[in-house]
Structures are given as structure tokens and as C-alpha cells.
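pasting for the record
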Amino acid sequence: MARGNAATERHVIDVASLTETDIVLVIGPGPGVGLRAAAERARHTTGIDPSEDMLRACVDRCRDLVHAGKVGVRNGSAESTGAHDDAFDVVLSVNNIQLWDNLGAGLAEVSRVLRPSGRLVLSSHDKWLPVARQRLITAVEAAGLSDVQSWTWQPPGQLASLAFQLRATKPA
């Protein structure tokens, strides 16, 4: 997972245009590759995952950033982040949306925790999308996000599969 998703994690962070003032939520950070990369650019980054094994891997990979107060990890899911309203400037998710128990509830939670003008950037293996592309775009809009843009991206590597990516903004 760390090797296979690394290029996509970095690409999503580039697309999100993270700044040193951003407070970031990573949904399903896996072993923490993207969590670490986001934290190196942002003011603070929080990773949520329902798997204690993945949270431990994140802490191991980001130990110095955890100790510096730039990274936090906690148990949670897309549908239940445990965050306050308007808590994040950016929400990121890579190859995780297919694991969300309820797509509509997860997107509503993303909208709730994003600050006005906050950004959602997600990526999924195109073949693993839980719904058709247009249905996902419609669900993102139904959750109250706007300026939805989507595209496909081919990660580097012979075995890498095509990724569907999406960026949206919470209205100001």
C-alpha cells in the first residue's frame, strides 16, 4: 500500500495546493505516506481510520511530526470523523472511498467538517469506484459542495491502474 499509493498520494497533495496555513484531514491514510507528505506542507494534518493497525503504521511513519504537534491520528471514518463543524481547510482521500459504509453520509460529513471555501480532493482506482463517475459527482454536489471537477490520471509504473480524481469546494 505504501509503495503502490505513494505517487497518487503526492499527486493529490499537489492538486490540493496545500499551504503552510492549511489544516488538513486525511480520510483513510493507510500506512501514512500521504499523511506525512501533507503534514510537511500544512500547518496541521489529522488522519482518521477505523483500523488500529493503520493508525499505528501512521504513527510509526510520522513519529517526528506527531511529536512536533503537526500530525494527529485517531479512530474514525468518513461518516464519523469526530471533528467539529468547519474544522478543516482541506479533506483528502486516496483509494479509500470504496471502503466508506455510506457514500452520502460520508460526503455530508466531509461537507460539515470543511470550512467555507474548503477543498475536497479524492482519488480512487477507477475500477474500484463504488458508483458510476457521474453518480459520484451528483452525490458530491448533493452534499453541498460545488465547483466539482473530475478527471482521470495515470499513475506512473507498469502495474499502476487508472485513477479517477475529483476536486470540489465548499461554498463560502
